[in-house]
Amino acid sequence: MEKKQWIPRGLIAGIFTAITLGSLPCQAAPELSADATVGLYSGYIWRGYELSKDSVVIQPSVTVGYNGFAFNLWGNLDTDQSTDLFSEDGNKWNETDMTISYDGSYTLLNYSVGYIYYALEGINDTQEIYLSLGLDLPASPTLSIYRDIDAAPGWYIALDLSHSINLTEELSLDLGAKLSYLVVDDESTLADPSDPSSEYSDFHDAVFSVSLPYAVAENITITPELYYSFALGSDAKDVMENASADGNDSDFFYGGVSASLAF
What we know:
Elements: E1 16-17, E2 20-21, E3 24-25, E4 29-30, E5 32-41, E6 45-46, E7 49-50, E8 57-66, E9 69-81, E10 90-106, E11 109-120, E12 126-135, E13 142-148, E14 154-166, E15 172-184, E16 191-192, E17 195-199, E18 201-211, E19 214-217, E20 220-231, H1 234-243, E21 251-262
Antiparallel strand pairs: 1-4, 2-3, 5-8, 5-21, 6-7, 8-9, 9-10, 10-11, 11-12, 12-13, 13-14, 14-15, 15-18, 16-17, 18-20, 19-20, 20-21
């Protein structure tokens, strides 16, 4: 599954409420929010990279938000980790991500800035900072820019489009599309497959998504999800195939179901 995101996985914003009493202005009342989600998926695909193989993954997420600020904790449990991708097989917890963010809006513009720490099994941990800008327009166009500041210095730039159709009061159809561009700082991080002496840069991955959120109660939502991820360029295809378990895959169908509880 496209880490649910990046736009960072499981992220929710705090809410501002303006209160007016007669002719006397009042300060906005801060809001505390919390959300817990657990997803069960047929695979873990992140930015076009295959991070699981022929196994179910379980991905819990918890977010607490206050007055625009949010903290998210996200993890990945592979129920049958592959030795083609990791040094050990079996049931393994192999990733924990921590995100601190601030979200806001101004007229039609929505924005988010944040920091992500990736605690990873088998490879070096890394860190990113990001900026996301979205417009409150049809298809909700959103441009997100991520900068790795640690183990793999480089830029990941993604354009997301999304649209939601209300089918009933409880059920909606959510459609999404993403395309990205990736450029690393030097060839020691990731070399260009066509020229190993140069750093990799290319239109990287695209993802189409379909989901059906169903509100089973006021604060509980069950969501079936389906994704298709594929390489955008020939160099990207080579990079993804080299990183896959069998060396042949650069496009992936995967899906599952998630359950969310909002407080």
